[in-house]
Amino acid sequence: APRVSRHVMRDPRLALPPELRARIEQAPFRAALAVPLVVTERVVGVLAVYDKEGRIFAARAVRLGQAFADLAALALDNARLYEAARLRDRAIEAVTEGIVITDASALDHPIVYVNPGFERITGYEAPEAIGRNPRFLQGPDTDPAAVAAIRAALAEARPCSVDLVNYRKDG
Hints:
The protein is of the alpha+beta class. Helix content is 40%, strand content 17%.
């Protein structure tokens, strides 16, 4: 919850570390509004607004501070999620095995992503594969029972593991 102090240096509720106390004395700040930046129930920082006059922050100012803190916390969390996704992307790109991601919610389950391992193994570059159903990789020795097992698993939204013979671009 937001904390308001009319005089930071004299407020018995605040335990200020010596380095912060010294900075406040030099500023010289008196009043403070401190709003925690909360991300998934964890405080990751504080949005602080200081005032030299020692005024009381009105309820409207506290609500505005809370709104800014919520937006700042969201931005920090988005940045963290973006970095995590970027790291995952780099790891997937580095894997030597072929990885194909399809959109199971779209008609005909088009490929939406292939990694460089897929390109190396199949000879198809990403633009040649994206948007197509993976069946274009099948051929005469592709086992229809394995394909049926994959279709059944997709229909039932359950995991499936089969050995499937697919073909390279050059045959």
